[in-house]
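Lab meeting minutes (informal)
Scribe: AK
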Amino acid sequence: MKAIQITAFGGPEGLRLVDVPRPEPGPGEVLVRVVRCGVNPVDRSQLTGRWTWLRLPHIPGSEIAGTVEATGPGVTSVAPGERIAVAMRLFCGSCHYCLRGQEQLCTADPRSATAPAIPGAFTEGGYAEYTVVPAVNAIPLPETVDVDSACAAALDGVTAWHLLDRARVQPGDRVLVVGASGGLGTFSLQLCRLRGAVPYAVTGSAANAAALAALGAETSIDRTAQDVAAEARHLTAGRGMDVVLDPTGATSWAASTGALARGGRYATCGILTGAEVTLNLAPFYAQEQEVVGSTGGARRDLEFCLDAMARGTLRAVLHRHFPLEEAAAAMAALSDPGRMGKVLLDV
């Protein structure tokens, strides 16, 4: 089968289109014929060597949608020919957290203390014609949900859904969505509106303002030309934001925490620009502010997203499609200045 492998850490020159044997599903597994695979910053993190334990060559790709090609022994939950999306968290099903339905906190793999246990990172992924996943991660698609939407929901939709849950977004909350033009941000804006909250978009491209408004943004803040914290306070009559959703990490930390209202909640699900930050505890305790961590989501979060898509209340925003052999260009497209939404590989 055709696959894209990371053969060396560094830049796009480390990606190679190769022919490798098609994998076979073992007990409790399914073989998926990949139709779409999302391109995510987590793939770029693997390529640059962020996870030093990753063994090369390695097939990345954590946002997978396709059809079941074959099932391994003991699998009865799905059948060959079914359209599925792959739930993003790998889990044991028997630890303390899994038994409580908190699959995203599974303790089976010690690496998950600092990195998400997801297909394409802890296993071979979806930058390939076929991939093997646990059958419990194969979630059947509603009839009216297309494969592009399902692929976008598999990681970005799930992460946004769980992030809003963790941040306890409530009706009437003023919510600052950092990185609003990306796949995660475009879902977060819509989900804020579905919950009765009022989202404000932070973007690096003023040209995206109209599109962000169509997704629910009350208004947009151009981080390249405006002081984000000051503008957030101006837009809320000086009070600040009840919630800041920020997946970007160190670079935006000061602006995001500076935008918080009293009792405000800063919620993060990523460290794209670095993990180390400093925190002055005085305003946090005096103003009863919170820092909330969120990591992906569980199978039920994907089911919620797919159901909302089937009902027409949630939609995927797509930036560009690339063929599998152009995976390096697809990864570069994550940094397109005017990018709006998801980058997909057509496998």
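Next up, CB showed the second protein from the same session:
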Amino acid sequence: MSSRRRFAGSTSGIGLGIARALAGAGANVMLNGFGDPALIEELLAEFRSRHKVKAGYSAADMSRPAEIKAMLEQAARELGGVDILVNNAGIQHVAPVEQFPIEKWDAVIAINLSAAFHAIRAALPDMKARNWGRIINIASAHGLVASANKAAYVASKHGILGLTKVVALETATTGVTCNAICPGWVLTPLVQKQIDDRATREGITPAEAKIKLLGEKQPSLEFATPEQIGAAALFLCSQAAAQIRGIALPVDGGWTAQ
């Protein structure tokens, strides 16, 4: 990994866990995501000092194809190339289909699905030219199963798995692989807020709210961690995974085994 360069985001949660795992293996990183500028600078300093790798940041809006293309170009300039692409951007909106706002549907599809297409489209030519690349799409357990009131999210994550398979087939005779990771509940700041909000709303402790949340979907009653998702991504980038192509890898505590 030390000779490879990596482009991906984000600045928190799963994306940051993946970035740390790959930087720990010697990969340079390009982060993308929203966040306080001071915090982002702290993260870049962490990568540079702890892991001794190059680290950059792009504030590209993942709903804008031109900005995605510019971000890939920035990564090539600053890091020397894009060997590993991790598509992790995602948003959510919850509503019944007949009440789902059209603008929310369009936004979820743009960020969760179309952004991955645009990034892959921009990164593939150079990967093919070097005959080496790893494309990792962060899908979801909701790429394999559904939940009510999440039409756009579920559709986008099912779409990501379809896109993953197509890219895997189109690169099957090359040194480029494309796979997806399907996390279940992962304890990120966003999920922690859901737990805290539920505890307040139902008048229960955060620990009780956590078990109720997990009990609805995740049989292990334990969250996956960003570090575990990062370790899975690191494996998919290894030579051991060279013939793993087009898979949807659940890291979901048994969610999709039910």
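CB comment: Residues 1-8 have pLDDT under 50 and may be disordered.
No objections, moving on.
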